[in-house]
Design brief:
alpha/beta, 41% helix, 14% strand, globular
Length: 154
């Protein structure tokens, strides 16, 4: 995908492009925010993505999720997004984790030395805070979206 990352290179330079290619980002939660995050990183030339979600595509996702199409209904979000990303950038390594992040899994993720950072796109506050807490205690860099899923007035 080197040629298709030319616009990214204009923005971040050759060194930045190289750093992206050597990075491994875990994205927790593949709804609206997580799907867009994963696609943007893939298009930018990230080297490796680990996609984590436990949910499947439903009709209620069609009006707001990037990966929600009639052709993806019933598929796991991980599977649907993986297929899309591999079609966008076959050079990005995609790891699929069709799991729910509870306290134990958050601890394991936060201690994974292979990760560059974590993108927290989880919409459930209780599990979002479990992951953030585990990362803060381990020193794992984490970026967290503070969405207002299902609310008009957060």
């Amino acid at each position: 995908m080197a040629g298709s990352c030319a616009r990214t290179e204009i923005l971040v330079g050759k060194l930045g492009l190289s750093q992206l290619a050597e990075s491994h980002v875990l994205i927790a939660g593949l709804g609206d925010v997580g799907g867009a995050c994963a696609e943007s990183l893939c298009r930018a030339g990230i080297g490796e993505l680990t996609l984590v979600d436990f949910d499947t595509m439903a009709k209620t996702d069609l009006n707001w999720q990037l990966i929600a199409l009639h052709s993806t209904l019933g598929q796991s979000k991980v599977e649907a997004l993986s297929k899309r990303l591999r079609d966008i950038n076959p050079d990005t390594v995609i790891n699929e984790e069709n799991i729910f992040i509870d306290r134990q899994k958050a601890e394991e993720i936060a201690k994974d030395d292979d990760l560059t950072f974590i993108a927290d796109c989880i919409d459930a506050i209780a599990y979002k805070t479990v992951l953030i807490d585990a990362c803060n205690r381990s020193g794992m860099p984490i970026k967290s979206s503070m969405g207002a899923g299902g609310r008009l007035d957060p």
